[in-house]
Amino acid sequence: MDPFEYCYNWTSPSGQDAGVAVPKMAVHFAGAARLEPPGKSYVIDAAPGVKCIGLQEGPWPGISVIGNILQQEHLWEFDIKNRRLRFQRSRCTH
After folding, report:
1. Where are the domains of the chain?
2. Per-residue pLDDT tens for 72-89?
3. Cβ distance 65 to 81 under 8 Å?
4. Which of 54, 63, 74, 79 could form a disulfide with 44 if both were Cys (CB 3.0 to 4.6 A apart)?
5. For the chain, how long is the longest CA-to-CA vector?
6. How far is CA 69 from CA 13, 61, 65, in A?
7. How far apart are CA 94 and CA 91, in angstroms?
8. The model's pTM
9. Domain 7-89 fold
10. Rounded Cα–Cα distance for residues 90 and 6 (Å)
11. Is 38 helix (H, G, I), strand (E, B) or coil?
């Protein structure tokens, strides 16, 4: 389903998504840092009954973007002066 490459029919008899396992994903950064977001941060509703892995390929070389949905449930610090990105899981849901 354009623009996503990996999409799946996603229906259940009850109409609920609870209990459906999705593959775990990790984004690896320099210095051994890893972002391991929950499935709801990268499996998105694309159409009724269709879910997609919400990642898109970009040109290389180029700029990579970590979108707002993938950033959810984490606290982020953008240290421009020292050129550092820091993050940690958050219990905050708002």
Report:
1. 7-89
2. 888 999 999 999 989 998
3. no
4. 54
5. 52
6. 27, 24, 11
7. 9
8. 0.69
9. Cathepsin D, subunit A; domain 1 (2.40.70)
10. 28
11. coil
Written as six digits, the tokens of 59 are: 């040109």
Please, are residues 41 and 51 in contact by the beta-carbon 8 Å criterion?
no
Token duo for residue 3? 């623009």
Instruction: Rounding to the nearest 10 degrees, give the CA dihedral for residues 48, 67, 24, 54.
Output: 30
Q: At 69, is the secondary structure helix, strand, or coil?
A: helix
Digitized pLDDT (tens) for each residue of the chain, 94 residues in all? 788 888 988 876 655 555 667 888 999 988 888 999 988 889 988 999 899 998 888 888 888 888 888 888 889 999 999 999 899 988 776 6
| Distance, CA of 16 to CA of 74 (rounded, Å) | 26
